[in-house]
Amino acid sequence: MNENLASHQQVRGERAPSDYAPGFRAISWNIDWILRPLFGLGMAIAAIVAVWALPPKAFAAVLLLLLIPAAREWHRMVAENKLEPMKLHILTATTVAAAAAAIAFMLSGLGLFAPVALCVGVMLAVLVGLEGNPAWQAGGVVYLGLPALCLVALRSFPDPAQGARIVVGMLFIVWASDTGALVFGGLIGGPRLAPRLSPGKTWAGTVGGSITAAAIYACYVALLGGPMGEAALFAFAFSLVAHGGDLLESFVKRRFGLKDSGAAIPGHGGILDRIDSTLAASVVLALLVFVFHLNPLFWGHA
Q1: What is this structure's pTM?
Q2: Is residue 193 classed as helix, strand or coil in its secondary structure?
């Protein structure tokens, strides 16, 4: 990851983009054509293997390791270089500890979120009076810690195999939404979804990504013995959460004048740029499963 925030492309002061994307005629060769799918495929395979092959506690450990560089990206992004590196390390460790504590103590119900809430309070108390946007720093605990808890809770389903199927299905929806949006948006162009917030996103890409997610998830659920129709409708609606997660991180980056959260992943930017949709999707899916008792596989269990 690039350690110098000044090296990141700045977006403050840029002229507002056109409300329309040019589409296929504007596509030109870029090294990201190779790097993005190559690294994306590698990360997808690694994620699926981790979900399927690792028991819940080992999965939680891997997830926490991933949170360390992700949390560092968050803190460097929102601190605007106003905090010393050592303080950033402390904040990063605090973020990871919040998720680790809830998992280690195997809390349930509202108690599951107690370590996260406590950690937010401690961080605010420590940072009050210091530069570096303390409220945003503390918000990173929620932004990263809460999705981590939700992912581990989903993976630790009473039937762990069913939990693995649910998490993999969610990942398919997220990845299909992102990939479909990239392809359809690039080929069709047209009106931008939020030109000042995220100039690369178009309405065509958003709808195309949702359609792609519906098709992929319907096939996945059908392979597990569930109904394709219900699965397609669910995935189309749920893909909007993935799009929303992407826009949320775009808002934060715009707020602090950055194009990417980092440069850890060639063709993708930072780790947060890669997992932003998954962070939002995991929280919403956990609410649907544990609060509203939805079976996202619609009785598929093969």
Answers
A1: 0.84
A2: strand
